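Assess this one:

_____
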Amino acid sequence: MRRIGIRFRERNFIWHFDPGPWDVKVGDYVVAKSPEGIAVGVVVEGPITVAEESCLQDGSAEEAQQRGAPLPTIERPATDEDIRKYRSHREREQKAKEYCLERIAAHNLPMKLVDVELLFDESKIIFYFTADGRVDFRELLKDLVKHLRMRIELRQIGVRNHAAMVGGIGMCGRPLCCSQFLKKFHPVSLKMAKDQNLSLNPLKISGTCGRLMCCLHYEHIVYTVLKEGLPKVGRKIDTPEGKGKVIRQNVLERSVTVELEGGKQIEIRYPPLDENYCRQALAKVQSYGSEQDEGATGLDQDVVNFSETEEEEKE
């Protein structure tokens, strides 16, 4: 089965689709179903051939395994008219954003406009914003409806969603995971940082959004599997050179550092895990993503979702 990656908006998630009978390549425009409905997107990955069982719907691995749902198929390659409409929408979004910023300043509202999205079918236009709390923007909503003459939706998002939409570079030097390939935000806890022997300094384990880095979660799964069979730090074990206490773990190398009774330190390596075992273990611990760990941060969800149409304003 073939698979392609599509990005519906600049600096946004990559969604995977089956190209169906069409021969599309990177850079081509296609029409497919986005989270908000039918939209035009740009092919940024593939096409590549992958195993049938791996062609599962986007989302967390455990959800895909439970559903067993295949990848959705694109509607069709975009026509010249579709591309023209797509580019026209980008221009209209920019103008709508400028007007909205003007009205936010005029009403002195404590909110930050992040992005504007006009749906492909022009059924509504969405304004994404962040704010510290609830905002009374009834007058702003009326101004937008009167100016744009269409259904308006004001959607408040959290700081993690904000980072995903805006994009940026993480402390690792790579683009933010949330703006590249993550499809949802999982809870992240300090316990995950401890298990990976990372510094608990908030400045070193927090992302640009100010929350714990998302990579702590999906890398924690690998550490959980590779730790199998390794003695814990502080445990006393027997070695070829005598008894000693484990003072360090190198999970990726599957080795531990042991301090012998005489003060000498030695490194003991453990054999690599069986490949089949790793697969079974990964399938088991992937359920972590759907569980709320103690001390974990909650998922960012829409706090407020207001909409109003021209007809409602008249009433």
